Amino acid sequence: MNTKLVWLLSGTVLLSACTSAPQKQQTRQGAAAPIVDLRSGGYVPQTTSGSSAGGGYLAGDGPGADVPANLDAIPDAVPKAEPLHKYANRQYSALGKTYTPLQETGNYKERGVASWYGKKFHGQNTSIGEVYDMYAMTAAHPTLPIPSYARVTNVATGKSVIVRVNDRGPFLHERIMDLSYVAAYKLGYINNGSAEVEVESIAVDANTPVAAAVEPAVKIEPAVAAPVVPATPVIPVETAGAPTGKVYLQLGAFKAKQGAESFLGKMGAVMGDGGKKLALYEKDGLTRVHLGPFANAGEARVAAAKLQSKLGFKPFVSLH
Questions:
Q1: How confident is the chain (320 residues) per 10-residue block, as mean pLDDT?
Q2: Backbone φ and ψ of 162, nearest 5°
Q3: SS3 state at 165
Q4: Contact 282, 238 (CB under 8 A)
Q5: Domain-embedded: residue 52
Q6: Under 8 Å between Cβ of 132 and 122
Q7: What domain count does the chain have?
Q8: Which of 13, 37, 203, 316 is least buried, going by the fewest C-beta atoms within 10 A?
């Protein structure tokens, strides 16, 4: 779920633009691997319903291993005036749809199906560069301004929560919103995986001081020793040169290296350890996300067919 301007292409076909009104989304099975102009964001395969694994989330996703005992005590997000992210509110395309984010809060209300996302994306960057915390009251939405706030109501129970929208998505299965694990828990649909909800954007009072940064409010606690955070590893990038004959699958191509790095991380979380490595490959002005190497093109095509249902698009064979 990472930002700035997103242009998602399927193969060589330029995707058609939609209007600025929020749209329902459909998955285009069989689409080619995406080509994205993503200067600080990423495509994230979203949750699906009907899983037999005790909830309707994406395979491999779900609750964390150490779920806090006091989820009910986690407070709702508190609306406050915040400057819109510089890049995350530009028009973008994803999986065959073009979205025009709203530029004002308080003028959106829609009823539809919401899903949730959890441990698979916990700790990864959201579309505005913040770290996703599955135990914070946040959400992803295709077109609401980010950051902004929304009231989400479970239509079946009448239960409501307030979340801070800081991510883009979902783009699959006609979902209108992806809530954090704890927000979905408080709305009572963790086990179902999805629920019919009403989403209403909250207009922040114009007199409320504008926050100096997009980070959420932090509760002041007594000082404790800060944990040691490992340095972010540098992802090597191979540059196209003389042909080597190595066979890879291309999962995506990006105009910005940052977008490629983010997408590589998402793909790694979705696919897990399948015996092949994800790598970055620069060619013709694009940074590409490749999987491999494979013994030959036939083996790569078999792998691409298996990955299609998991990823929502079919990777294609690429030679180094």
A1: 36 30 32 33 36 44 69 92 90 84 93 89 88 93 95 95 94 86 93 91 65 37 48 66 87 82 80 82 89 91 86 85
A2: -115, 130
A3: strand
A4: yes
A5: yes
A6: yes
A7: 2
A8: 13
Query: Would you list the DSSP string of 49-114?
Result: S--TTTSSSPTT-SS-SS--TTGGGSPPP-----PPPTTTTS-EEETTEEE---SSSS--EEEEEE
End-to-end CA distance of the chain: 29
Digit-coded pLDDT (tens) for 179-197:
999 999 999 998 888 899 9
Q: Residue 187 belongs to what domain range?
A: 44-86+98-223
Token pair of 128 as six digits: 């505005």
* Same domain, residue pair 299 and 209: no
CATH number of the domain bearing residue 219: 2.40.40.10
What gap in Å lies between CA 290 and CA 274, rounded to an integer? 14
CATH code, 292: 3.30.70.1070
Nearest to 317 by CA among 262, 307, 6, 239: 307
Is 310 inside a domain boundary?
A: yes
* 232-243: pLDDT as tens digits: 455 677 887 788
